[in-house]
Specification:
CATH topology of the largest domain: Rossmann fold
Number of strands: 10
Number of domains: 2
Helix content: 40-55%
CATH superfamily of the largest domain: NAD(P)-binding Rossmann-like Domain
Number of helices: 16
Distance between the termini: 46 Å
Radius of gyration: 22 Å
CATH architecture of the largest domain: 3-Layer(aba) Sandwich
């Protein structure tokens, strides 16, 4: 763990870094502008011919402009890291950071688009900037607004994905696939508890419904229970109809009609996936799970249960979102490859099949997973290549690719 003094030093260095460079992102020309002829080709009059070609066929924008390799990182700053609702200005440094990660790991040009506050016209505003971009990464938007916005943008003709939801879900699924290999379990027979029904919890739950997807088979986890701050989500719970997304969770999970607390849900479970709050899972709750339990405690920076406590309580595999423990489950393993594959296919959207293909590609990257290594390092750039390949192939197979 990082000590208090180390953290203070890191904060100071970060402020100095950002001040020195005035941010982390810049725009550079790809072409020379050293002569009148070079200027004429890049701008007027030569560029007019490019404009005329795209006017006749707008898909040529993927060939002739930045569109084919550029995404927008869109936020309202309402759920930034662990900082909460810090607004558009406060979100800029994080979105810049996300942009340089896209460039570093996937060669994608990404640019922050930080809205002051979402309003009733927000979806239309995003649609209106779509012509410039090959995809849109929704980022750090609080639930349930993130669900509503993403759903409304699915048919705009380019991939739109809320990374806090689906990037997290993809990596958790990949980790679970390999954890099952290590513990000798089969996917469809798992008993899983998801702790947290916000952005990540909702996406994880939906994706686990297709956990065994392959090109010719899709199996479903039969025993899946979701808990929020009020306990187990079930069909008869009061007030459920006031939240569309929790109603969907209730409709698609908890086939046995379980009620009670998180502790009740975890009793006899194989897996607990925490995307909620620090310290809410105890050793006793882990002990109540099945033998060789799988514990993914993803709350950051303090997980639902610390890894040493979960292991002491009998868990076979423990993963967190932190880099200072084994089995870091970080969405940075997913989103560069997902968008790289989507852009390579000039995809119209990111489908469930593409997400699950990304998870399988990520899981299969580790040839021999172990209890302490179920996922690759986020610094391994070859991971992006593997994930992108799987996503592109799924896009082509699913009929949402503009080119093959």
């Amino acid at each position: 763990m990082i000590s208090g003094d180390e953290k203070n030093t890191l904060y100071k260095e970060s402020l100095e870094l950002h001040e020195k460079h005035r941010g982390k992102l810049e725009i550079k020309s790809k072409v020379p502008l050293n002569s009148r002829r070079e200027l004429g080709r890049a701008y007027t009059p030569g560029v007019a011919e490019v404009c005329r070609a795209i006017e006749k066929d707008k898909n040529l924008a993927y060939r002739y402009t930045l569109k084919g390799n550029t995404i927008a990182i869109v936020t309202d700053g309402s759920a930034v890291l662990g900082l909460g609702d810090i607004g558009a200005y406060g979100a800029i440094p994080v979105m810049e950071g996300k942009a340089i990660l896209f460039k570093k790991f996937a060669g994608i040009d990404a640019f922050p688009i930080c809205f002051e506050k979402f309003n009733s016209n927000f979806v239309d505003e995003v649609k209106n900037i779509a012509p410039v971009f090959g995809g849109i990464n929704l980022e750090d938007i609080a639930a349930p607004k993130c669900f509503e916005v993403e759903e409304a943008l699915q048919e705009i003709g380019i991939p739109v994905m809320h990374d806090d939801q689906h990037g997290t879900a993809i990596v958790i699924l990949a980790a679970l696939l390999n954890a099952c290999k290590v513990t000798g379990r089969t996917f469809e027979d798992l008993s899983i508890v998801v702790c947290g029904a916000g952005a990540a919890g909702y996406a994880v739950t939906r994706l686990l419904r297709c956990i065994g997807y392959s090109p010719d088979v899709c199996t479903v986890v039969k025993d899946l229970v979701v808990c929020d701050t009020k306990g187990i989500i079930h069909r008869k719970r009061d007030g459920l109809y006031a939240n569309k997304y929790k109603f969907i969770i209730a409709d698609e999970t908890n086939r046995q009609g379980k009620t009670g607390t998180l502790a009740d849900a975890m009793e006899g479970a194989d897996v607990v996936i925490g995307v909620s709050a620090p310290g809410i899972i105890t050793e006793e709750m882990v002990r109540s799970m099945n033998k060789d339990a799988i514990v993914f405690a993803m709350a950051n920076p303090v997980p639902e249960i610390m890894p040493d406590l979960a292991l002491h309580a009998g868990a076979a595999i423990v993963g967190t979102g932190r880099s200072d423990y084994p089995n870091q489950i970080n969405n940075a393993l997913a989103y560069p490859g997902v968008f790289r594959g989507a852009l390579d296919a000039a995809a119209t959207q990111i489908t469930n099949e593409m997400k699950v293909a990304a998870a399988h590609a990520l899981a299969n990257y580790i040839k021999k997973p172990t209890k302490r290594r179920i996922l690759p390092s986020i610094l391994d750039r070859k991971v992006t290549i593997a994930v992108a390949k799987g996503v592109k192939e799924a896009a082509i197979a699913g009929g949402c690719a503009r080119r093959v």
